[in-house]
Amino acid sequence: MTTFDSDTYRTELDRLCFSDEQKVRMAQRLKAAARSNKVLELHGTQPATGARSDERRGSSRTDRSQRVRRRSPHRIAATIGIAAVLALGGGTAYATGTLARAADSLAAVFGAGPAQTELIDQIGRPIGASCTSNGITITADAIIGMRNAYAVVYTIEKDDGTAFDELDMNQNGTYNLVLDGGGSINALTALRLGIDASGGTRYTFDADPTDNAIQLVEMMSFGGSGVSLVGETLHFNATEIGFTRVGKDGRNLPSQAIATGDWNMSFKIDYEDLSVDLPAGQTFTINGNSAVVEELAVSPLGATITYTVDATDEASGPTSLETDAEKRVGHGDFTVTFADGTTQELGSGYTSWQQDGKTVVQKTWFFDQIRDVDDITSITVGDLTVPVQ
Question: Which residue spans traverse the membrane (predicted)?
């Protein structure tokens, strides 16, 4: 677990310095925010109510330079985001390198176009917590999130400056690094929040091939009525860093350890939730069953839906897991259509529970890149399409 070191804190403060050009740019952005009557919220704690599921993401990232068009001011915050933390503090001291790494890490995952950068600055927060064991340091660079889901970007690097030569790039563009452990909230917090289930995914990439570090992205979502993750503590624990191997015949071999150790740290879940609620109560059909939408919301990062299916799952038969999964009442595609005509299949994964003889299903998925909500045209689940107005 990370601890507070007053000497290090003061040292990092002393290192903060800005050129005249940086000072001018910061002053201009602050004046612009004041003129537009926007409130500066460096550590916004807007409640994130309801929703859940598992997510699986691809690794493709596309930079788009579209103009940000804001909706009505249901969320009011200055757009100077991470840069404002550097200039004004906000209760926490960050070294210049920490903030630069946070911005770069989130841009590598969610897009680096001008509009995307502005949204990332508004939603994301730097972390800067780190832990070291057996000559390897893991740093939590930044966090970003939506109603009941978050994504954290970590950097893993050897203290001696050498590279992870053991790692290879997979066909999907990610690396074969594996981590025994990860980030999570503790059981008592989950019980207090009424969390019914959780799910997620993670992958690795190399943000800067010229250095010796590798980046790990961990995306998690939590399900339950009224779940708000902002302000809770995330605990990171890991005991082994290794890599997967594939035999000459193409079969997966047991993973091999690069290092074992005890990596532990804790930090706050902190981001600006820009989720927008869409109409609910519609009746639709999914996977052959009648269902009713209980809650539907979109954000620049993804979408979440909760619906009740008028059916329950029968006991699984002696068939394949894939076949059984396709027959379950919660199975069904979840699709988003964007203003440029493109679509993204958010997938059919979900979490569910039985209630009053029916099945409540929740799905939460991240988009493949951050987008302004105005660029989302509609959400489709089963035979229902809901326009985003």
Answer: 76-95
